[in-house]
Amino acid sequence: MERLVCLVMGYCFGLFQTGYLYSKAHNVDIKKEGSGNSGSTNVLRVMGVKAGAIVFLGDCFKTVFACLAARLLYGGQPDMVGLLVLYAAFGAILGHNYPFYMHFNGGKGIACTAGLLVSIDWRLTLICLIVFAVIVAATRYVSLGSLVVVSIFLAWMVVFGMMGEYKVRASLLPEFYGVAALIAALAFLRHRANLKRLFSGTENKIGVRKK
Fold it and tell me: What letter does residue 26 receive in the DSSP assignment?
């Protein structure tokens, strides 16, 4: 029951589509511009740096709030709360990616995943931020930086979950790893078109306008 509560609660947080709402407030329908995605990268390309930053923070913090709510509700179960935080974050990412009122077509969940990183470990957040910045600065591929960060997240969960960093009891570790793997897999699934373009050398570069 706790898992279901956290998943549904997270999904409700994720339904707050920052990009769509912000663009509408500025007389832009982001679903009809650029890639048609409501996430922060498309908002950045279409509306500029300020808009992209605002949307990124909005999407990031809705996951932070979902994780915080899970901690507040189930903080009395220290050997399980780490797993429940993952469920809440997974729900927020699902709500962001697949909002029912937008025909299940939202963003790609990277800003929401950043909110999960912020919620679980400042060291992981710092490492991912540095790696992301270096990759994007060197290649200008936001998608590549995003997927590398997601891979680091999964590796971190496996290593530190095993070491008891998140106080998950041993019997729950396979499930803990499984939810972390689902979060990472969903990011790759949502970026499958980007992956094809990366392999073919046709991926869009940030800051470079199409001819």
Answer: T
Domain spans, the chain: 2-200
Any idea which residue has 């949307």 for tokens? 55
Tokens linked to 22? 């912000």
Task: Please measure the distance between the N-terminal and C-terminal CA atoms of the chain and give it in whole angstroms.
Answer: 53
> Token pair of 10, please?
């997270």
List the one residue out of 133, 101, 129, 137 whose CA is nearest residue 113: 129
pLDDT of residue 91: 97
Residues 6+ apart with CB under 8 A from 166: 82, 120, 160, 176
CB contact at 8 A, 19 and 59: yes
Residue 96: how many other CB atoms lie within 10 Å: 32
pLDDT at 211 over 50: no
Alpha-helical regions (H) of the chain: 2-14, 18-25, 40-47, 49-74, 81-97, 110-120, 122-139, 142-162, 173-190, 192-200
| Residue 18, both tokens | 């920052």
Amino acid at residue number 196: K
pTM given for the model? 0.90
Closest CA to 93 of 162, 25, 153, 9: 9
Rounded to 10 degrees, the C-alpha dihedral 14/20/23/28 comes to 180
